[in-house]
Amino acid sequence: MSVKAAIIGATGHVGRTVVRLLADHRDAEVVYTYSRTQGPEGDFNAADFVFLTMPHGSAQQYLPEVADRRVLDASVDHRTTWTYGIPELFAERIANSTQVAGPGCYATAVILGAAPICDLVQRLYVVADSGISGAGKDASEIESTRPYKVGNAHFQLGEMKHVLGTERILFVPKVLESVYRGICATLIVPGLQDRMNDAVEAIRMAYDAAPFVDVVEEPATAHVNGTNRVEIGLHPMADGELIINVAIDNLMKGAGGQAVQNMNLMCGLPETAGLA
Question: Does the model's pTM come out above 0.85?
Answer without folding.
Answer: yes
